[in-house]
Amino acid sequence: MAGPLPVSPLALPLPVLPPLKGVRMATAEAGIRYKGRTDVLLAEFAEGTTVAGVFTKNLCPGAPVTWCREVLEGGLARGLVVNAGNANVFTGAAGVRAVEETAHAAATTLGTKADRIFLASTGVIGEPLPAHKIVAVMDDLKAKLAEDRFTEAAHAILTTDTFAKGATRTAVIDGVEVRINGIAKGSGMIAPDMATMLSFIFTDAAIPAPVLQAMLAKSVDSTFNCVTVDSDTSTSDTVLLFATGQAGNTPTDVPGHLADFRRALHEVMHDLALMVARDGEGAQKLVTINVEGAVSHASAKRIAMAIANSPLVKTAVAGEDANWGRIVMAVGKAGEPADRDKLGVAVGGVWMAQAGGVVPGYDETPVVQHMKGREIEITVDIGLGEGRATVWTCDLTHGYIDINGSYRS
Amino acid sequence: MAGPLPVSPLALPLPVLPPLKGVRMATAEAGIRYKGRTDVLLAEFAEGTTVAGVFTKNLCPGAPVTWCREVLEGGLARGLVVNAGNANVFTGAAGVRAVEETAHAAATTLGTKADRIFLASTGVIGEPLPAHKIVAVMDDLKAKLAEDRFTEAAHAILTTDTFAKGATRTAVIDGVEVRINGIAKGSGMIAPDMATMLSFIFTDAAIPAPVLQAMLAKSVDSTFNCVTVDSDTSTSDTVLLFATGQAGNTPTDVPGHLADFRRALHEVMHDLALMVARDGEGAQKLVTINVEGAVSHASAKRIAMAIANSPLVKTAVAGEDANWGRIVMAVGKAGEPADRDKLGVAVGGVWMAQAGGVVPGYDETPVVQHMKGREIEITVDIGLGEGRATVWTCDLTHGYIDINGSYRS
Q: For the purposes of burial, counting CB atoms within 10 Å of the CB of A6, is it exposed (0-12), middle (13-18) or buried (19 or more)?
């Protein structure tokens, strides 16, 4: 591709992410692929920081994902290294060596063991990661570590993203206020050789690792795992949640005590997930798809994803066409229980079809108007049960073809 | 869309389809949606004609599919009515009435019962089918019935297709030569409101309906069901095979006696299926995807379809980029057994990656040359077993967005 991509028309400004006790970060220009921008992030966590992680379901994951899965078993983190420009995927034994080299260098730098270091890489697939370039900037990174570096961090991890993504919330645990900051990158499930969904979430709360893991996994299901740009699953998708325990709350695993934290965590993840959809490659419209009346929530989600991944639905949205025929087609291809003669379809809150046919006297005017907007809402009533789900996607435009159909340069 | 689409650069000429004993056909301009072209086909079959059918797996099928599934139980056919321009899908009770009206009119015209009449409709979804327009041309159709009308039939059933599709073969059953003619239409699994995959195959052989059904279903699996344009499944996909029994062979169900017929039938279906891929919406390149070394044939096919349906693989082909990183990603997202470190990927017969990494000394030159051609071949070795499959697709181009992203007009 020639030149930077234009900023998505759906972009949101990066909020101010306040400092967070127990997290210090620094970024550097390692020159892995990009020139004239930061491409490496180092984060240092306070002693005792617990960690949770959720990774790609792709069966050909990158070497950093394999590393994280292993060290996650310890439940403790002291450091995180993220690089952009090279995904270290499908790189064989050299990829494993690059991971080990990076982890050991970071461990030495931070005075800890390698199995307390988490890693993520995003960028080109199939090219060896020059770990020595990361190692070379490690001392510089250490010297620059500071608490107030979330904005820099949000920028250093980007690839084909057109805007930096972050979210912040506070919550109260047993009377103590804690903060959650999250950053993310991603603009396709995987993109023009480089892109992937990465998210790093930080909190100063004290929460045992198994509790943290359960909360993270639950919220991933209804946030990041409900976003699709092109149905393609990156080999590097990673969400990590670090809890430094510096806020002063007593560590707890009593569900009731964590209700407010769970709410705040979910909101941070929900914000970040929607930002990924808003930065979908070539996206001109953000599409929210609600499915209700399915036989179960899981069934509703599968139907919603079938609609969200249908090229014909996505091109119809790009063309501002409220084409409910294509939506019905997508419901039918999902393979989930559905009855043609009970289906209803609404766009922008207006029911176009109900009980298997066009609504009598249906007036297209408000729907046509809705389709011209930036945020499109599609609701499908399956008419069989109580299952419901909401997923988010973007439209499929010439921009997607431009970005992904151009030769690697 | 304004104006006709340009003919696919992958188009093949329509072969001469010789007359076939026991099949008479006629076409007419019913004006259902299109003007100045034929849009209805009537076929009359000799008494005793057996029939087999395979239909869409979409759970929201059109009314004609529901009709065909029911009358297929009788195993006998006297007539077929196909219309283009309106799919009679998601049309509720009106759709069922349109089907009955058409079937009864054709039955009266041909002097048979309605449950011997097969129907297929393709075109816009969600608009009532004006069956009276079909009924109005029925006498005219009857008057024009003739044996030598395959070319006209291949044209009358088209929607967004850019070329007519047909194939013919002969086979020998117990020393008697029989002929098989097939026609098809389809350019997306479902298209800009109108399109679908329909195929009608005719033979003068005498073959019992259950035997016919088994042969048709088996060949569909490795032909029509191995073609994907955009992963979307039409609500109307229909393949019907009619055997008039006029060639003079003795009806047989001895598998050995039907080997040559099975070969010829498979070839006809294979030709037609590839023509559908060649007419994929916006297609500039025909892509053959071979998967070998999977744990089973079924597993190989699922992996091959994951590659064929990946927007990132399809845009890479459009960009003439032999991007094996995206192919590996697609293998991994298929959810089938695969081991990153055993994978191999070849393009145009040249192995780019083997055993989980780039082939040492890999020379890109012949691959770059291959990617510039019209017919692209991708082979993936999973390295785990003996399972293999081949599927066909086309690239994903700006043409697809143009065709599917324009407002219904």
A: exposed
Q: Cβ contacts (< 8 Å) between B398 and chain A: which residues?
A: 398, 401
Q: Do A58 and B90 touch (CB under 8 A)?
A: no
Give the domain extent around B369.
286-404
- Are B263 and B158 contained in the same domain? yes
Q: Are strands A50-55 and A198-203 parallel, antiparallel or unpaired?
A: unpaired
Measured CA to CA, the distance from residue A323 to residue A310 in angstroms comes to: 12
Residue range A33-85, pLDDT digits in tens: 999 999 999 999 999 999 999 998 888 888 999 999 999 999 999 999 999 99
Quick one: which of A123, A196, A155 has its CA closest to A28? Answer: A155
Do the Cβ atoms of A311 and B311 come within 8 Å?
Answer: yes
For residues B121 and B129, the answer to whether their CB atoms sit within 8 Å is yes
- Known binding residue A409? Answer is yes
Distances (CA, A) of A265 to A25, A216, A249, A274, A390: 21, 8, 16, 14, 18
> Could you tell me the two tokens for B151?
């070319």
Could you tell me if A137 and A109 lie in one domain? yes
User: B271 and B152, same structural domain?
Assistant: yes
* DSSP conformational letter for B226: G
Residues A30, A42: contact at Cβ < 8 Å? Answer: no
Cα A329 to chain centroid, rounded: 28
Distance, in Å, from the CA atom of A215 to the CA atom of B234, rounded to the nearest integer, reads: 40
If asked whether residues B291 and B252 sit together in one domain, one would say: no
For the record, the structure tokens of A93 come out as 């034994």
Q: Which of B278, B313, B338 is the last residue of a domain?
A: B278
- Which residue does chain A place closest to B318, by CA atoms? A405
Residues of B in contact with A231 (CB under 8 A): 231, 309-311
Given this model, what pLDDT does residue A4 score? 67
Backbone dihedral angles phi then psi of residue A347, each to the nearest 5 degrees: -125, 125
Tell me, what's the ipTM? 0.77
Query: The CATH number of the domain where B28 resides is what?
Result: 3.60.70.12
